[in-house]
Structures are given as structure tokens and as C-alpha cells.
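Q&A FORM
Asked by: J.P.
Topic: structure of Histidinol dehydrogenase

PROVIDED:
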Amino acid sequence: MKKTDAPILKYSAKGRSRKIEDFLLRPPVEKGADQIARQVLEDIRENGDSAVLKYARQFDRAPQKMVRLRVSDTEMAEAKKAVDADFKKAAKEAHKRIAQFAVAGLREDWRMPSPQGGWLGEKFVPLDRVGAYIPGGAAPLASTALMTLTLAQVAGVPELVACTPADSVGKVNPYILYALDLAGATEIYKVGGIQAIGAMAYGTKTIGKVQKIVGPGGPYVTAAKRLVYGDVALDMVAGPSEIAVLADDSADPAHVAADLLSQAEHGTGSEKSLLVTTSEKLAKAVRIELAEQTKTLARKEPVAKVLERGCILAVVPDMEKGIELCNRFAPEHMEVITKRAESVAKQITCAGAIFIGPWTPESVGDFAAGPSHVLPTGGTAAFFSGLTVEDFRRRVSLIHFKKNDLKETASVVEAFGRVETLDAHARSATIRLKR
Ligand SMILES: NC(=O)c1ccc[n+]([C@@H]2O[C@H](COP(=O)([O-])OP(=O)(O)OC[C@H]3O[C@@H](n4cnc5c(N)ncnc54)[C@H](O)[C@@H]3O)[C@@H](O)[C@H]2O)c1
Ligand SMILES: N[C@H](CO)Cc1c[nH]c[nH+]1
Ligand SMILES: [Zn+2]
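REPLIED BY: S.T.
REPLY: Here is the structure written out as C-alpha cells.
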């Protein structure tokens, strides 16, 4: 077995394999990312634009000569010219599908009658200004521009800010710019990493503070997002990509291996790929496919890194144990390639997104299907959900009582006012009924 061969491990009903447990629990956060993020955020809070530029030069690839953070109209026009027609067509198709899914997910304002003639309800109002982080370290994720801001566009947010790192000549990838324009970005800044999160969270002279930051990122972005929570609203922990494939002997090993590699190739080295199967024969065939297919990939090196420390092939005694293991992992992406895949998928309760059956590779979720590919990672799919259009609206409760509703509830208000020693609370109800 080579160093880069993913290990085949047995997951049994009795003793749990330590290697599997380590795999499930290993945090994706780079050692030291938290500490660096703390220092950089503090500097940005104090020194604004000058600190943002300093770190863009230090940590992004931005050149010394880059002094302007905002993407200009000329740069946008140049990007639109540079992008090929095939990509434009694909991006428009993806944008249409993402927008259709977002429209279908919009909640309607609603009301219900209160018992004595009034009503209760909720209304949904777009946020005013949001910021999306578009990763640009290991790969230019143009699809992420669509998978974030399109939802904000459908929600009706008027100010759509995007931050993404500049390259070594101070430019942003034209495909990212084209996709951002399609998704309605109103301001785009050439800044990445911790400094992008700090600028959007605290605001600088150039980059106005946003109400909410969304979007994925590598270990540094993820650490920075955790630290600014509370100064700004956030979507979730959307860190290095993960995939789990739950398969039986009906699955094609070449397909399974391709899907495991699709997330390993993201390239930060912190990604995770897990096969859970009832068939040891499949696990062995997948291991051979992983090695063969890796040779043909452009990103062999980062993939090999993930295969070495972020990929395991777990053999389970039966499907129930497989489902249990997948739910414990709570992966960002969960593929089910088994007989009766729909019924198996019903039992998966912890995952960012579930891809059901042999015709649904995870990559359709990344680029084309419709739901946002911004999804929780690192086990947080057990309690966070993926990005939706409702992330870009505030939900406001509405309460409209009639006199008889107040009469009916006054004794409840009085009782709580007494117990909580808050007389004025009680009085504000009873005073109305005395007059
Ligand atoms: N969960 C999701 O929904 C989702 C969606 C898309 C992508 N992803 C993941 O997002 C990640 C993108 O990561 P990335 O690294 O390519 O892009 P990134 O833009 O998050 O990271 C690159 C930036 O990190 C900063 N950085 C790098 N080294 C640093 C250091 N030593 N100190 C301080 N800052 C440093 C720099 O500012 C650089 O521009 C991938 O792991 C991908 O799998 C996740
Ligand atoms: N797999 C990523 C989410 O984890 C999304 C993505 C963008 N581009 C390619 N893939
Ligand atoms: Zn992907």
C-alpha cells in the first residue's frame, strides 16, 4: 500500500476504530489560523484601509503597486470581453436555475387570527447591505459568486458587496467578475482572506460595513468569520469541502472514486472524503480507481495530500451501521448510491445536502442544480443548514390585539410580571383595561 492509498477500515458494532473516530473529529482549522485572524482583525478595526491593503499584499497575491481596492467599471468591462461565450452560456443557465430555486424557497408573509378578533403573523424584509466572500486562493470559484449573491438578488437586497483576492498583477479572475455581475453585485473589492472578513465586518473608509457576511473559505476565512460573529451576522461555518458516499455493491467504483476526488481537489489540504460501504469488494475497487484517476488530474498534489490524511474507506457490517456512521460525520455533501436509494436517503438526517441515486454526482450541486452550494462543514451540518434565500431577509413578528385579546391574556401578563418582579410589565396590560 502506498502512502497516498486511502486506508480501508472496518466499522463494527463493537469497538469503534480509532482511525475512523480521528477522521470524524479532526478539525479543519489550520493550526495558528485563529491567532493570526485575531491580530489581523484588530489591526483592521484600528487602521482600516491601510491595514487591509497591507494584508492583501502580505497574504493574498496582491502586488505592491495595487492601491485601489475597488474593481473599476473599466476592469469589469475588460472582464466581460475576456470571458468566452461557452462560459457565459453556462453561467446564465446556472444563474437561472439558482434563481428559480431561490424564488421557490421564498416564504410568504402570513397571518393567523388570534382568539378574540386580532391577528398574529410574520413578514419578511430584505436586508439592506450584505457581503459575500468568494474564495480565490486555491481555485477561482466563479460558481460561488452565483451561489451566494443570486440568492440575495432574489431576496431583494439593494447593496450587494463581494470580496475576493487579487492575483499577482492586482486583478480579479474575469470569470469571477462576470459571475458577480450576473448575480447583481453592486460593489466588488480585491481583497481576500481575514482582511476581507474584517473589512466587511467593521467597515473601512473604502469598504462600508455590511449587515451580514456569507460565503465559504479556507481555514483563515473560517477562523476570521468565527471571530467577527456578533459584530455582524453570519451564515455558517462553510469551510474546506467534504463528501461522504454511502454505497453498496450496486455502485460503480469509478463513479464513487470520481466523486470522492471531486472534493479532495479543492486544494487547501483540509478537505475530507469518506466512503461508507457494505461491500469490501467495492472499497478495494474504489481504492484502485482513486490511485488511477488521481494520475490524470491537474491537481495531483493537493489531491494526494487529501488522500494521505483526509480520505478513508469504511466498511460497515450493514446499511444501518452505514447510516449511523454518516449521520455522525454530518458531512457537507452526502451521496447515496445504493439499492432503494430514496428510502436510504430518508434516514440521513445530518448533512448539508443529499445527492440521491447514481445519476446525481455532487458536482451538479456545485455548479448547476439550483440549491446553493454554500453548506456547513466540519460536523456542523448537525446543527447548521446551507445558505438559502431567507438568509438575506429579516423575519419580523407581527402582533395586533383587539381589546378582548388583551382581556384574555391580561392574567397571564400579570402572573409573569409578578414572578419576574417586573411590575411595569403587568401594569402596561392592566392599565388599559381599567380605563
Ligand atoms: N463549504 C462550502 O460551502 C464551500 C464552498 C466552496 C468552497 N469551499 C472551500 O473553500 C475553500 C477555499 O479556500 P481557499 O484557500 O482556496 O480560498 P480562500 O480565499 O479562503 O483563501 C485564500 C486566502 O487565505 C489567506 N491566507 C492564505 N494563507 C495565509 C496565511 N498564512 N496567513 C493569513 N492568511 C492567509 C489569503 O488572504 C488568501 O487570499 C476550499 O477549501 C473549498 O473546499 C467550501
Ligand atoms: N464543492 C464546493 C462546496 O464545498 C463548491 C464548489 C465551487 N466550485 C467547485 N465546487
Ligand atoms: Zn466542489
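FOLLOW-UP: The chain is about 45% helix and 15% strand.
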